[in-house]
Amino acid sequence: MTLCPSRRRARLALAALPLIALAACQTPSQTSTPTARSASEAPAAPPQAAVAFPVWLDAARAEALRRGISQATVQQAFDGLTPNPAVIDLDTRQPEFSQTFWHYLDGAVSETRVAKGRAQMQQNAALLAKLERTYGVPGRYLVAFWGIETDFGHNTGGFSVVRSLATLAYDGRRSAYFRDEMFAALTILDHRDIDNDHMTGSWAGAMGQAQFMPTAFLKYAVDQDGDGRRDIWTSVPDALGSVANYLKTLGWDGSRGWGYEVTLPARFDAALASLDSDATETVKSPAEWAALGVRRADGSPLSKTDDPAALILPAGIHGPAFLVRNNYRVILKYNRSTFYAVAIGHLADRLNGAGTLAAPHQTAEPLKREDIIALQQGLSSLGLLPGTPDGIAGGATRQAVRAFQKANGLAPDGYIDLNLIAAVRAKGGNA
């Protein structure tokens, strides 16, 4: 959402990093306006070491006043403010290992979380029914977001939002992004939705039980409980109502699900699976997928009335397969991670009584950043991947992997493991 990768997200899988959080944050998880995740893709800016923080803060203070933020709010937020070294440390720290799909899913959709989520469904049944009537988003999805984002409000982060955002804006690498978020946070304070002492969140500025970034809060937060404040920190109605409003605004279709698990026939063409972050490469009708031998995970045929869908293989051709629809893409606007979107959908299904995935649970060795760099170097030496290796297995790297697989008689699923890396390095002269 306008969320942000909270503290958990910083530990995420390199392969699942596509946008989420590095703008600054942390859950097991790959983000878009309005989220902090897209900030991670912004070009780096030179550090502002040449300007002392008090000088920088004076300029920010003057700009805040020009933007119409009150003198009282600016003083409350900026007086005595200093950078937070812990925020810079978290922002610059690279995850040592990538995350595997099953390891991620096991954490995000644990039996404990399912049980707690079902209890929350019962406890908040009247609220969830009202939100579904108002926004068209079934309660199980709202509880799934709530559970994965903050463990139902228990892990919201204890960092001062203004101090974190000022620190990251001053640091300079994504200054424009975090500067805008900082002024949005000041606007929230000016509206008296929260006071500065209680405006806490992740180290990247994601706030409250919904983990909204400040700009997202201004666009989508609602006063669901009618007390005159949009309080996503302590008010469950406001937090879940804000998530529902966000999803509705982004195009959630309450008459449809997110997708479903399927089985593939032997020798299925893995090139038909989407590698792009929005799962739009190959979209087919249920009849077309059925003609290719695709069936539901329980062996039943695909419904002819289902919407056109794309195929995703988050753990490669030998892992679980899913046909996903537009609501899946709406989830991705909250957090641009395939792992995250599948986890939200699967947790919502579990809360609705569904069982675990039908695909056999697999174990896979996590990849180190140096493994991804070696892969990228090998792909580069083969002329398949331009640019400088960065250790992040994003869309371009996975497309290059698919090209390598096609050229070498391998299933072109774009999936990266140690065997694939060894094959690329062997062909590329151990680059």
Keyword list:
431 residues; mainly alpha; Muramoyl-pentapeptide Carboxypeptidase, domain 1; five-stranded antiparallel sheet; two-stranded antiparallel ribbon; 17 helices; 43% helix; globular; disordered N terminus
Would you mind describing this structure in some detail?
This protein starts with 52 loop residues before the first helix and ends with a helix. α4 crosses α14, α7 crosses α14 and α15 packs parallel to α17. The chain is built from 17 helices and seven strands. 50% of the residues are buried. The N terminus is likely disordered. It is mainly alpha-helical.
Radius of gyration: 22 Å
Shape: globular
Structural class: mainly alpha
Helix-strand string: HHHHHHHEHHEHHEEHEEEHHHHH
| Spatial order of strands in the largest sheet | 4-6-7-3-5
Round the mean pLDDT to the nearest integer and report it.
Answer: 89
Q: Give a count of the beta strands, DSSP E runs of length 2 or more.
A: 7
Number of helices: 17
- Percent range for helical residues? 40-55%
How much of the sequence lies in strands comes to under 5%
Biggest sheet details: 5 strands, antiparallel
Distance between the termini: 39 Å
Q: What multimeric state do the chains show?
A: single chain
Low-confidence stretches are: 1-46
